[in-house]
């Protein structure tokens, strides 16, 4: 039995519709049930703040504090983390500081939110992601980058540094400052960061594909084949030339075109994640609603398995309304697969009976109007 990462206690203060609650837990999964608007997704969102970023709703911090509360919000967790017992507190101070997320680990202010990834990894799947395959490519890119980030915490910094450099280049071009030395410097920086981003994405997809290949195909969930497109496609797949030189040259050649377009037309910010349903050999966007959902569930679970293999610890999984639209057999198969990951999963639904196949592998919590009943 491997060392299990799990939340032992979760406390929320002025978080969304919760004034003050405390939820004692054990290593089992957590099933949250209750009426619409009770606070199930809010509770999962609180757990998602134990990872870097803006949480599973991608919320503005100012929206998270409870309406009517005097100050900011706080999320506190006592957990058995990857390095053992740890206490994590995060939130905002309210007032002028409402836009800064504070983080304390074992009582000490953390230098960077990336420190969270030393203790736990958190992955989620929410109904808001249902349109992932048919929606805008920006959503798929964000999804992809989150997959990379949970394996490689440096990916976030690379992506934000790339964005900053690109904004700098766009500004120079917009102002008509075609100074080759200055532009060339910014473009070299973009090339180094952009190629690193593309390679990190490619590497993660390679690992995920190898894992899906090795999986049992009789599984209740279809498997996906994954590819990237839109940026140095052939070159990244078989790097025979210096990719950074290649991208820097593309940028240098494209200066007048990009100035006219008002943006940088080539780069990792334009690539897309292509997903196919393997067994049907069909693009995901042409699959049925149910097939797309099953593909997404399969993808997230395969990724969770990859994170577990790479870090030695299963991630905390937040699965919002996961059991909806699944027949009983698929539901039971899903619970078995979640359980086999060896981590703690939080699941929500309006109906407790949907989760009966979990039996005593889960702790059942009823949520009603910002209160918890364990
Ligand atoms: N900052 C806030 N302050 C107070 N209440 C809030 C805040 N943000 C959201 N809420 C409220 O929290 C309530 C619970 O939302 P949540 O999304 O957690 O419900 P849910 O239990 O997941 O419901 P559903 O089954 O419909 O998904 C909503 O009524 C929402 O209006
Ligand atoms: Mg909800």
Automatic annotation (TrEMBL):
GO BP terms, alphabetized: DNA replication; DNA synthesis involved in DNA repair; double-strand break repair; SOS response
Single GO cellular component term: cytoplasm
Molecular functions (GO terms): ATP binding; single-stranded DNA binding
InterPro entries noted in UniProt: AAA+_ATPase, DNA-binding_RecF, DNA-binding_RecF_CS, P-loop_NTPase, RecF/RecN/SMC_N, RecF_2
Subcellular location as annotated: Cytoplasm
Keyword list, A-Z: ATP-binding, Cytoplasm, DNA damage, DNA repair, DNA replication, DNA-binding, Nucleotide-binding, SOS response
Cross-referenced Pfam families: SMC_N
Binding site for ATP: 34-41
Ranges where the AAA+ ATPase domain occurs: 26-371
Major place of residence: cytoplasm
Similarity-based family: Belongs to the RecF family.
NCBIfam families according to UniProt: recf (TIGR00611)
Role according to the record: The RecF protein is involved in DNA metabolism; it is required for DNA replication and normal SOS inducibility. RecF binds preferentially to single-stranded, linear DNA. It also seems to bind ATP.
Protein name, per record: DNA replication and repair protein RecF
Organism: Ciceribacter lividus
Gene name per UniProt: recF
